[in-house]
Amino acid sequence: MNFHPRYLSDDVNTAARILHNGYNLSMHGVGGRLHIEVMRDISKYLEKAPKLLVYFYVGNDYTLRAVGHLTFELRNKGMSYLTSRKDWSDLFDCVIVCARKPDFYRSHRPFRRIKKPTWSVVDKFEPGEVYQGGNLADFSRLTGWCGQKVIYFGDHIFSDLIDPSIQQGWRTGCIIHELAKEIETRSTSSYRHTLSWLIRLERLLNEAQSQRQEYRTPDLDNLIEQWRDERRRVRLELKTVFNKSFGSVFRTYHNPTFFANKIRKFADIYMSNVVNLDHIPLDYVFYPNRTYLPHERLVETLIDTGKLGEYLHI
């Protein structure tokens, strides 16, 4: 497929805006064609998740606030369906719609009440009320939420996670729906077998090239070229198994993608669905695995396997 990534990105972005907001890109009303279509048959687009309701009853030590880009009409329709409650907003301490992220994080736009519209300044968040617009600075001031005692879940790196992480130091959780399919593919026996063969093949190439410095022969040169061809074939197979045109969302051959690097930098945890946390207690603390740099790998591996003493002849 011959394409320029910038043109593709611009066109997809424009199409998404029109679908969500209509041609006038207005934040008022019911939204664009996509919103109208979804509201016509909400059950066609949303799947009820009974386990999700558990997260709305987290006890007095925790508070829930929903901040989203959707219009109130669509959010009300969707949440009423998901929770089977017309008073779903009572499950949250605060609900904000039409936040216009990522402008929400950088602008000084004031909050405005939706259920009981007034022109008065919003100086506190009232339970059961729904607010429109606003900005992150006022949100933090009114709620007192700051630093690592806050965890914010979103499904978009640039519109959801970067600014809260940088500006307020919030903990962040990223919802990546494609992750479920990636894990399913990586768990197949054929993928594991192919990946194992690639790793062994690269080790053979390293050893053969080291030997070639002392024992260079035509047969060895031919063997190395055959292994290199095989490596190219296997690498392409591992890439296209995820997507024939683009490969994996998270990896380009052996390197993490730009998207994966952003996830590692700005998301403390990530998952395909928030209900993946079903069996995790609220007071559980996640500790990240150590990331090895190339020059650290030997010593760190020896420490992990308990063979450092053997290596140092202790």
UniProtKB/TrEMBL annotation:
Source domain of life: Eukaryota
Transmembrane segments: none
GO molecular function: 5'-nucleotidase activity; metal ion binding
A Pfam family it matches: 5_nucleotid
Keyword ATP-binding: no
Keywords: Hydrolase, Magnesium, Metal-binding
Keyword Metal-binding set for record: yes
Family statement: Belongs to the 5'(3')-deoxyribonucleotidase family.
Protein name as it appears in the record: 5'-nucleotidase domain-containing protein 3
Organism of derivation: Apophysomyces ossiformis
